[in-house]
Fold:
Amino acid sequence: MFTYILKRLLAAVPLLIGVSLIAFAIMAALPGDPATAILGSYATPENIARLNSELGLDKPLPEQYLIWLGNILQGDFGRSFSLARPVLDIVLERFGATLILAGAAFLLCSVFGLLAGIVSAVRQFGWVDRAITLVVLIGISVPAFWMGLMLILLFAVNLQWLPASGMYEIYGGGGPLDLLRHLAMPAITLSVVATGVIARLTRAAMLEVLRQDYIRTARAKGLGERRVIYRHAFKAALVSVIPVLGVQAGFVIGGAVYVETVFQWPGIGAMLVKAITTRDPLLVQGGVLLVAVSYLLFNLIADMVQAAIDPRLRR
Amino acid sequence: MYRNFLRTAALCVVFGLFVSLPAAAQTPSGVLIVGQTAEPKSLDPATVTAVNDFRILVNLYDGLVRYKDGSLQVEPALAMSWKISDDGRVYTFQLRQGVQFHDGTPFNAEAVKFNFERMLDNDNPYHDTGPFPLAFFFSNIDKIETPNSYEVVFHLEQSYAPFLSNLAYPTGLIISPAAVKKYGKDVGRHPNGTGPFRFEEWQSNTKVVVSANPDYWGGKPKLKAVVFRPLTDANTRLAEMLSGGLDVMVNVQPDSIKTFNNDPRFTVLQQVGPHVWFLILNTREGIFKDKRVRQAVNYAVNKKTLTEDVLQGTATVANGPTPPAFAWAHNKLEPYPYDPAKARALLKAAGVKDAKLVFYVTEGGSGMLDPVAMGTAIQADLAKVGLQARIETYEWNTFLSKVNAGLVGKADMAEMAWMTNDPDMLPYLTLRSEATPAKGGFNSGYYSNPKVDVLLEKARSTTDQAQRARLYKKMQTIVHEDAPWLFVANWRQNAVANVRVKGLKLQPSFLLLMHSVSKD
Structure:
């Protein structure tokens, strides 16, 4: 197991270098530059040239890339142009907030997605199945930002039950309950699509498994239906669902961009969008690298969990 | 069945607990919560360029001079008086005595000298706390002398009339030298000035909190504290305002103004600022080489529809290149009226028939209002007089890099907007023959009129304000006639406040001063 993990981690190194190179190249290829974005109306060529040299952006691109890479290897991600702070501080702080949001959404979509999928499969073509399918399809089709706005309109503006935005109360906030109240709407919004995808896949996987001979055998032995479904069928179906959960975990972090913007959640998605529009290359590159690392880790974890459940994969 | 009932009941109780807490706890009295449009970059005045950051800074710091309430004229602040030498090259300021920075260190001539040398002198040991993007406002300073603790003398390389208004701009706010020395590059997270409010805390992406400075030289502020919240999404800002999470919100979308106007819980504030929205016309090639065609498009576009329908009354029709917020704006200059018949006649006289135009439009950007909707409306108006404009839309930074490089060979016209707090900058950088993109200017349409050039140079070096006004008015009349731009709109900045907020005023400078604001 240890060598397996080590191998996977080593294999990730070229991938991360590739990601860093692509992120760097895209930022370099974008029209407009940080100096123009900072100077706004005053972006005369003279001012731009002066600012670029102060920011170290007048060096040739390959040199800039190598300097950046070398600094990263020493743990220095540089300073953000648009926020005037060390990139690593910003990125980690933002990533923490995203993990809370994405974690909550992931929990919601796993629990409800799996449950809905199982119930759907067991009651195939019954009215419960049809109802769940309908809700799931609507959930997948509705854009997340629109749903977020509708939730805000209902629960924050009209009913005034939940706060419209942010992570904690601005004045005298804090504590887990405060966090939970702020988390409710964004987490639900973020989880909807993933819940739908997981529900659909769980349903398909369950149907597949329920047709197998050993399920018939289990029933024939006289096991209770609950035991047949959860102990035998679900466990087998889970093997094919887990990689999807891994992918969805990554998706949830990616999808957080819209949700973080709508709910003003101080996470990494909203930060990246802002960093791109302000042409802040170091911040974008640092953020992208961290997100890439997290994708790799989630997939690695999913693979390991899968291996733990399915003995066939352990060899 | 019974078990199900219990489970449902328990769920209801939990949910009830969850939502029964007051969502938007009434914000406490004396504490003002302001919804801003973005996270500040830094609170070091020398390093930032955004109005969003300036709104916080002007409450933490003072400059030597400041804008008079409700105008763009300057008045004393940390300097109590000043003298300008006859040749306009030496400015001598007498400083206010007994003023302390929030960290307890004294404000004096040395502190002033330190502030400007940090920005301008590459060899200054604290120059690395930059970069200072707007330092060129003061690049004209040759040397600074401090004959005594309360007198500062600025020697300029040549006479430069905008010097005083540049000092009033937030880039001229004075920071505590001790704080710069203590925090270095991070001083922007530990701001320290002499202003009416002291810095308390900055939670990234959540809030910046400032509290009243009881020792303020201008008297103690009425508020206990101000909290600035960054809310980038306009809809989120709106929702927070409606649900009571904010007391004041800036930059209300035109579509939402009505909502607030009809709600007794809110007051809507509006103020014309030094803003102008226009189309740059490519005067070097294509049909806009002909003045008659440029005038024709000015007649062809219905600016009233743009300001009143598209922008829902959040802007007024522009009469020329100078925004009405400036004292020397030419008030008697009439905007080009909407007159498609006249436009057609002018086009016919110029021999233009069924011309095709390339029209650069941006998706959005600083001061650009509602550029896509406005661009589309303009396109429709031009079609009515027989001009087919093909719109090309670009993201803001891409747009700037295309337009700032000049329109020649690319486009016939492009949207643009400017906001400056001194009246010289805009015409000097956009209307002078020499201000072409190749020479570092923003005259992307290559407008050239020697008379205008002479007037602009003269107005910039004259320190007599009345004389300056006369020169600028002449310039406006000529430019209006030459029509190098399609003059469209002057934005009225707006804000919405909770009725509990008293004494809040919007300033033409777009700054938000909290010193005399109170909240029940």
